[in-house]
Amino acid sequence: MQHHQTVPDLTSAESLEIYPAGLKIAGGEGDAWKDVRVSMFSLDTEMEQYDMPGIAEPFLVWIMSGEAETMEREGENDEWMISKIKAGSLYLTTAAVPYQFQWRRSSKEPFRVLLVILSLPLVEQALISIYGDRAKQAEMQDISGFNDPLLVQLLTCLQSELKQKEASRMFIQGIGQSIAVHLARNYIRFTNTTKLSSKLPRYLLKKITDWMKVNLAEEFRLSRLAQQAQMSEFHFNRLFKKAMGTPPSQYFIRLRIEEAKKQLRETKLTVLVIANNVGYTNPSHFARLFKKDTGLTPREYREKNRY
């Protein structure tokens, strides 16, 4: 089932909960929940795909029950990032950009999730308390489908507080601070910039693109590139696209086609050999990609551009 609601690129923490698919079954209301916004959803359909806007605040999603396969991507041309999740699985999202999300339920058990949004002051206080002057260089990571028993215990405390007739702001604030400190201790990377920006450093971008140029015959693996950047696949994919205007998989294809064009112009190698040289063992697949890029088959391109 596809949701057709118009989704902005950016929204507020207060408005985010109107976009997730599913039925809201509980939520914190009033001043007690000002710095820690909590909502519980039940996702009852077999599968769902929807768009999520970005928000400035980091947020957590805790899978409380059920099992599913989830897929995430930033844009239509990006690769889907696939995760197998079950009760206890967590998502941490920190980059303020929109993305697409879909899931397919794989159990009969109700699929319920808890959405928790931490205020920026709460997060900043935790970073400063731990890292002091280095806090401005600390960047929280995006992580999908991970496990963290201590974090689940803290989120369980927030879930329990939703059941109270009158929520305690002091209790919620304390749990929120504990979550922020835990995230700051365990899910931080340091950048070379002095602000919490969502950019790939130039030296790192060059290192990765240079590696891609040298290894065109290698199978494309997003995980290998993300590991070089010391980021999650989802976060790396976003930042690479933001820097280069295209996702890494498409950029890699473009490099392969450019090298194939060069070899077609400058050598007498057969099309089959050239295809293998740039990582394609299936000549038909290579020819389709080549024609999509140039409008010509490899042989037509060679005849037209032979030196």
Brief write-up:
The protein is of the alpha+beta class and 307 residues long. The chain contains 11 helices and 12 strands. Strand 1 and strand 2 form a beta hairpin.
Q: Which percent band covers the strand fraction?
A: 15-25%
Beginning-to-end CA distance, first to last residue: 54 Å
Radius of gyration: 23 Å
Give the low-pLDDT segments.
Answer: 193-197
Q: What percent of the residues sit in helical stretches (DSSP H or I)?
A: 40-55%
Spell out the helices and strands N to C: HEEEEEEEEEHEEHHEHHHHHHH
* Main sheet characteristics: 6 strands, antiparallel
What is the topological layout?
Blueprint: H1 13-16, E1 23-27, E2 36-43, E3 47-52, E4 59-65, E5 68-73, E6 81-85, E7 90-93, E8 99-105, E9 111-118, H2 120-131, E10 138-140, E11 143-146, H3 149-161, H4 169-186, E12 188-190, H5 202-214, H6 222-229, H7 233-244, H8 248-266, H9 271-277, H10 283-294, H11 298-305
Antiparallel strand pairs: 1-2, 2-9, 3-8, 4-7, 4-9, 5-6, 5-8, 7-11, 10-12
Helix pairs in contact: 2-4, 3-4, 6-7
Walkthrough of the structure:
With 307 residues, this protein is α+β, with helices and mostly antiparallel strands. It contains eleven helices and twelve strands. The protein has helices at residues 13-16, 120-131, 149-161, 169-186, 202-214, 222-229, 233-244, 248-266, 271-277, 283-294, 298-305, and strands spanning 23-27, 36-43, 47-52, 59-65, 68-73, 81-85, 90-93, 99-105, 111-118, 138-140, 143-146, 188-190. The strands form three sheets. The chain has a six-stranded antiparallel beta sheet. The protein has a four-stranded antiparallel beta sheet with strand order 3-8-5-6. A hairpin with an 8-residue loop joins β1 and β2 (36-43). α2 packs across α4 (169-186). The chain is elongated, with a radius of gyration of 23 Å. Residues 193-197 have low confidence and may be disordered.
